[in-house]
Design a protein that fits this description.
The complex is a heterodimer of chains A (244) and B (274). Chain A has 244 residues and is α/β, with parallel strands linked by helices. In chain A, 34% of the residues lie in helices and 25% in strands. In chain A, helix 3 packs across helix 4 and helix 4 packs across helix 5. Chain A is globular and about 50 Å long. With 274 residues, chain B is mainly alpha-helical. Chain B has one domain. Chain B has 10 helices and no strands. The chains are: A alpha/beta (244), B mainly alpha (274). At the A-B interface, strand 5 and helix 3 of A face helix 1 and helix 5 of B.
Chain lengths: 244, 274
């Protein structure tokens, strides 16, 4: 892939309230092609809301969220542009992984041949015809990731993708996302596993109380803390430790 | 989207359980209605005196046989066989909507197709296809029960003209599709599978109660009480001269109700955060 002047993801002054509570307030950041950006923040900080606004699952009160310069709803074939995995949701326990992916492929107009490809890629080929209800959390994460990869997208939006993954799964995820970004793809991932973000991400956006508390390259952000992301994060979010 | 929605529907156990219960329930009630009830009425059941309160039940009559071909009705005019088949039809539509909500699948759907009304369009088409297939199964069960009974009992002859059989079958398919779409719209509105089932059952139970109360108060079933979905469905399938509404009015009236509720569900789906 070549360098693209248009950010893969551009979030401008996003605001979303639920009742009287602002879940997201004036959130702005960009994700450039070829980078992995970690979206960090305490529980209830607004990470998932930001992702849902980006993916058109919720409407912002104000501001805009663009993917490759367009609102998600305006993308011609969204699954071919953006692969999204939101906390392993959307998996019916009575279906098999293969059935789930066949349905996802049919919805997105993706050839069914891709199902076997992503099953192989995510290490699910041998378990593909077992019901998801019997899967571990890590295996469910892999199904969600497989669905995100179905359309061979240029942008990945992943909510807590490392949840439940075993060490081998973590390593696979790290290598897969790194290779994806090195090939020009853009990744926005939220995570509580700071060590993983430290390993995977090039940049981080820290959200606290629905606002961007810090954003930049990991090196710049953690320079004052001797490169310790955890120390930096805890200092920044100390006031937000209480769940909102 | 349509293929995906059909795949969703056919890859969950609930759909097949509902269809199985519907088919088995209908077969059982039709067998009882076509063979047992007439025998009971005429005193042919050994040790049981003739049940005069059942009235004259003549399984060889055109009226009886035409009524027996109605998969959502009952040859006795009661709601005895409405329950299973009608509940299953509406639950089928309900499942198309609520299975997605129950396990977060609507998020996956919306990610693949961000335009919400297209999602609803896919669900409507898939529901109509599945309901039409189910309706054909139901019609075949009714027809087969009657034909086999007529073949087995020398005293009964199948007397319904082919054109009338085809008319009842076509109207049954149309009504079943509309009721399934009503179930879908209810599912989109309430989102919860349990709440949806409760709403459907409440509608099915409340409609005859409302009609009975109205009849008690006014001495007759008022016109407005016959404009409720189940009554319209029955009137549309029967297309009887005794009915207030012939099929040509009942069917569009039922369609109008379904369109109204579906439009409301589309408006809610469009503006609701997922």
């Amino acid at each position: 892939m070549t360098t693209n002047p248009v950010p893969a993801i551009a979030v401008h002054h996003l605001r979303k309230t639920y009742g009287t509570r602002a879940a997201v307030e004036d959130v702005s950041f960009t994700v450039r092609p070829g980078t992995v950006v970690g979206l960090l923040g305490p529980n209830g900080a607004g990470k998932t809301t930001t992702m849902r606004l980006l993916l058109g699952l919720a409407s912002p009160d104000s501001g805009r969220a663009l993917v490759t310069g367009q609102q998600y709803a305006a993308l011609g074939s969204p699954a071919r542009t953006v692969g999204a995995a939101l906390d392993a949701a959307g998996l019916h326990p009575g279906r098999t992984a293969r059935q789930h992916l066949r349905i996802a492929a049919a919805m997105a107009g993706i050839p069914e041949g891709r199902v076997s490809v992503v099953l192989d890629e995510t290490g699910l080929a041998t378990a593909a015809d077992r019901r998801i209800g019997g899967y571990s959390l890590g295996m469910r994460q892999r199904v969600a990731l497989a669905a995100a990869l179905l359309g061979d997208p240029r942008v990945l939006v992943l909510d807590e993708p490392a949840n439940g993954l075993d060490p081998a799964g973590m390593r696979w995820l790290r290598n897969r996302l790194r290779a994806f970004a090195d090939a020009g793809g853009a990744v926005l991932l939220s995570s509580h596993v700071l060590a993983e973000v430290d390993h995977i991400a090039d940049e981080a956006v820290v959200i606290a109380h629905g606002r961007v508390a810090a954003a930049g390259t990991l090196a710049d952000l953690t320079a004052a803390n001797g490169g310790d992301l955890e120390e930096f994060y805890l200092e920044l979010t100390a006031e937000s430790a209480e769940v909102r | 989207m349509i293929r995906a929605e059909l795949l969703k529907l056919t890859t969950v156990t609930g759909t097949w359980v509902a269809v199985g219960i519907g088919a088995a329930g209908l077969l059982l009630t039709q067998l009882l209605a076509v063979t047992f009830i007439p025998a009971l009425a005429s005193g042919d059941v050994r040790g049981v005196p003739a049940q005069s309160e059942l009235g004259a039940v003549d399984p060889g009559s055109l009226e009886f046989q035409a009524a027996a071909l109605n998969p959502l009705g009952s040859v006795l005019g009661s709601t005895g066989s409405i329950g299973v088949a009608t509940i299953v039809v509406m639950v089928l539509g309900l499942l198309v909507a609520t299975t997605d909500y129950r396990f977060g699948g609507l998020v996956t759907t919306a990610l693949a197709q961000p335009r919400r009304l297209r999602i609803l369009g896919g669900k409507i088409t898939a529901t109509a296809i599945a309901a039409a297939a189910l309706a054909v199964v139901f019609v075949v069960i009714c027809l087969a029960t009657l034909l086999i009974t007529a073949a087995a009992l020398p005293s009964i002859e199948f007397v319904v003209p082919v054109a009338q059989v085809l008319g009842i079958a076509a109207r049954s398919v149309a009504v079943i599709v509309l009721l399934a779409l009503l179930g879908l719209a209810i599912g989109v509105l309430v989102r919860s599978q349990l709440a949806g089932v409760l709403v459907v059952i409440a509608l099915l139970v409340l409609e005859p109660i409302v009609q009975s109360i109205a009849q008690l108060v006014t001495g007759t079933v008022p016109v407005w009480a016959q404009l409720l979905p189940l009554s319209l469905g029955q009137a549309a399938i029967a297309d009887s001269a005794n009915s207030v509404f012939p099929a040509i009015i009942a069917l569009p009236a039922l369609a109008a109700i379904v369109i109204g509720v579906t439009t409301a569900s589309g408006a809610v789906l469009r503006r609701r955060d997922l």
